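=== Structure Prediction Worksheet ===
Name of assembly: unnamed complex
Input type: mixed (protein and possibly other molecules)
Chain count: two
Listed entries:
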Amino acid sequence: MSRDEDVQPIALADGRSRAVIENIQPAVDGGRFAVKRVVGDEVVIEADCFADGHDMVACRLQWRRAGEPAWRSAAMQPLVNDRWRASFVVDSLGSWEYTVCAWVDPFQSWQHDFARRVDADDLRVAAVTGAALIEQAAQRAARHADAELLRAWSRELAQAAGDAALSTEALARIGSDSPRAAVANRYPDLRHAFTHPQVFPLTVERERARFSAWYEFFPRSASPDATRHGSFADCEAWLPYVKRMGFDVLYFPPIHPIGRARRKGRNNTLNAQPDDLGSPWAVGAAQGGHDAILGELGTLADFRRLVQRAAELDIDIALDIAFQCAPDHPWVAEHPQWFRKRSDGSIQYAENPPKKYQDIYPFDFESDDWRAMWEALAGVFEHWVAQGVRVFRVDNPHTKAYAFWEWVIVRVRALQPEVVFLSEAFTRPRVMHRLAKLGFSQSYTYFTWRNTKRELTTYFTELAQGPGREYFRPNAWPNTPDILPAALQYGGRPVFMARVTMAATLCANYGIYGPAYELLENRALRAGGEEYLDSEKFERRVWDRAREDSLAEFIAVLNRARRANPALQSDAGLRFLAIDNEQLLAYTKTSADGGNTVVCIVNLDPHHTQSGWVEIDLATFGMQPGQAYQLHDLISDAHYLWQDARNYVSLDPQRTPVHVMELRTRMKREHDFDYFL
Amino acid sequence: MSRDEDVQPIALADGRSRAVIENIQPAVDGGRFAVKRVVGDEVVIEADCFADGHDMVACRLQWRRAGEPAWRSAAMQPLVNDRWRASFVVDSLGSWEYTVCAWVDPFQSWQHDFARRVDADDLRVAAVTGAALIEQAAQRAARHADAELLRAWSRELAQAAGDAALSTEALARIGSDSPRAAVANRYPDLRHAFTHPQVFPLTVERERARFSAWYEFFPRSASPDATRHGSFADCEAWLPYVKRMGFDVLYFPPIHPIGRARRKGRNNTLNAQPDDLGSPWAVGAAQGGHDAILGELGTLADFRRLVQRAAELDIDIALDIAFQCAPDHPWVAEHPQWFRKRSDGSIQYAENPPKKYQDIYPFDFESDDWRAMWEALAGVFEHWVAQGVRVFRVDNPHTKAYAFWEWVIVRVRALQPEVVFLSEAFTRPRVMHRLAKLGFSQSYTYFTWRNTKRELTTYFTELAQGPGREYFRPNAWPNTPDILPAALQYGGRPVFMARVTMAATLCANYGIYGPAYELLENRALRAGGEEYLDSEKFERRVWDRAREDSLAEFIAVLNRARRANPALQSDAGLRFLAIDNEQLLAYTKTSADGGNTVVCIVNLDPHHTQSGWVEIDLATFGMQPGQAYQLHDLISDAHYLWQDARNYVSLDPQRTPVHVMELRTRMKREHDFDYFL
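=== Predicted Assembly ===
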């Protein structure tokens, strides 16, 4: 029987190894993929560790940076039902790994039994056993002083066991010497220890992977002069504006030469005029491909200077990596084997029959020359990393082979562990999760189309509490250049305020496509569609940032609230609140240490004032029934005094459709109340 | 970076393999342990299978008996959200295994696109591509006739593509030839197929592993003559009684010579008298150990005859394997190295300080001679298997090394795959589950101490729906020789009826310790304890089976109901019903095919009539609001007509505290109603 053969050698090899380990958490697909954390995080690991019988089990968490020869370790502490826990802090970027080791501990078992013995003869017999175990610990002791201490204790206990004149109580005291037992427990007998064979990977990124605010912007529109194409120099002039709004990632659509062949005209028309700029996602022309820069934007030196200027403001310039080629991309001629051929010998353009996208050639990931193609694509990331780029938004990663992403992300991070990858995959759930597992730092979400209270509650509960919480970091966008959702087309300013508030507070990572967003752009190309009219994808736009109705200051307030409140800097700690109005959404976010809580209320109805009674679970925040507590609205700067679990809220969309309120449960001084009573 | 090195070779090797497979279910601990089924079961397997992009993915389930060189396979069918499903039937006992294989299918992708093309030129170009794909399928075709058919289709399609006179519609028809496409799909292009590397184990047992009724009985008490020790010949005379009650496993406590040294007296006293029989669990004496038979019971030939007689009635004789030794067990002298030594050189008896069990020596699973010890213990099972035993109840398996059980169960099953193992571990949840994962067919449960509606509902919902459902088969016992629960001590006959009914209907496997149970034995050794007074563990008892108040006939009715209703033969399909009385427990069990449903109502209060309104979810059983349906009480033979979701029930504990009713939703003839209207 083959199972017999399968199992016997394993079991026989470990015959005397009695401890077992199950259900190590966190783990993504049993350790196939990495759990994600950021530098400085405390990584809490739990496992079920137990053995047969009644002997005492001990276990330790083992961890190291990947590649280190030795494990670091910490004793795990028992919870209930054979569950154990320990943690470690990840203090540097890159790949880490952990596992758990467990064993039946003879010395601890002896301690446990010795303390319970009452019969004098038994105690003497047990004391001799204990003396031998302590002597063994002395032999394992790494520090000379510990060895000496243990040898002395062992001798003392053995002599006491043989001293018939010594009282049972005195003997028991000598054997139950907690300080010396603690020393002995530093040197456990690991001969039969079992180390879990699965090593669990952990990716540690910089904090921006977990907490970031993105501003998407077309450099072509950066020029203040309506007649001139924007340049990187123009973009520099926008940096203070972006900084004032509080964004820390400034993301550009592709900056490469744009294909001439089959170029699209304004509003996605097929008959481009000579002066039409085309879509930046039609990457490549005679001037170059994915490592070149569109001439109108400037030179590589200009780009590097922009990246440097942004860095001085703690802003990352994010590039858009769209792995596809315009027909005149140099690679099409140089490496025709990287593309599929049609039966007529022409190169297969992108299509989804009957739709055709003849200006785009997708790569063929089943190409026989895939190794060289992977190298070339990895080279694109490496080229831009060399220019100082640390954040990449990847266009449609779900149309490229998964194995490639797993390989290339590891490779780029080995070069530069600060790199953050955002997966732009608006597709099926399993596919989006797979990309996150493969290593993307952040992922676009369905938030863009989640509008009702039920939709939002279900979706964000799943994101915060589902298995994806260990690897899928949502990045919520209320709009993108491809998506002007119906709600924004018809809801007016209140919807723009509500949607960006939800993105910024439900998600630690969020972004907007501006200035279309803060300038309330809501004109669609076609009714029923989601394409912008006069989209910047196909033409330059001139934006009047000084408009009075701009949401720039509102967004700046939101981003300040995010920076001031740790609760808003992580996706954990989200909890929806009961509120008796289907048009009102209420939720709290609480920081990991419990020290900071933000209460958000959103009026989902852009047309009418909505009011209701919101229920706060007092016990969650350590409050008593009847207790009063303060809420400080970070948008309006108003202060509210609430009492007990149910409190009244009312939101007029024509003023501000949201509350974003810091919860203060403990008043520092009595007169803190005076301020608003 | 070591992660880099870890991942690159894997990814590179599979560069063009674009399909991925996740979350194959069922799986126990990611495939570390076997899923359990019985012969004849349809094993349904699901997995997430998908690829990048928009190409069509196909996948197949692969399975085989362990050790077979080739996989059998079946195409998986898509459900929703990239979930796929297929099944196979296990038609023989033993170890099986399965995995999933997925691939991007070029021919199906072509079919999908071809059917959507409208442009005539595109259609011609695509037809040429299709002809080439069909020709490739022809080359892979195993059957000559299929190859011929595909070659003809390929030629036809290629010619049609080149025929400018042919209409677009005609060309589309030739390419969209479903019958011939089905043939092509039998020979997919698997060059880039991905087979999940984990092979998932599956243990197939006989039906009795899933559905059994156990009767525990002390052979020492089998004699009808109060002055004589019972023998196997006496046990033969009990077989018709056991058969009439409907049990199919007759389980004996250990049948071996009983230790003389430190033998326990009646009622677990320390001063045994010369004529005291001792505890059967004190295994071994001068006459022999685990492979010997206590002289008073008879010879090996007597035992074999009893096993044979029982088999003729389709009753399994189950032996109790208690791996521990009395001090005079031959192994203690022959293999002292299999036991722990105390520091005074004596052998360590069982203890849990300050408690001592000096009549029992446990084995030391950390013995340096563990290999020989494992062989000897395996030999015990093998010896009794050679005598025809096919069911073992294992005493306290949780005090022996887990690795030993995994090894020995595989070994015994390789010898005789019919063997069923019951784990007698009343201990912590993780430990009980581990033993089940290691291969035990059935497991004792906490049912013995679950009394209230909430306790019973929570526990049995977890057993039926939790992850354990794939490997943990509960076996519910209302009593054992070690446990006379408080409820039975004080509740009288109604509790005996209610508890055995719940065991027999909540669990497909259940057992009682008789005749103590059917004869309502409720005298405890000490108030507040669970030990029987005058326990058969330490003395013979004489039972008057003819007593008028015996529950034997009630139990016979219960077991007939179990045999007649497939719903009661599996632990799946359990659903608790709302009923507005805390003393009434209501639940349904439904067979896998939905064709059989049993409704059970239990009055948990032994003192008062309880009544309430029970709610049936009509939709679950395919019924309409307002519909009438029949319930046939299998205990009382009464028929009830219920209508709509809420119906009234009332149970008088002094009559029968339970309803066990077959639900009949579809009346065969109109006049089926007449009978009880």
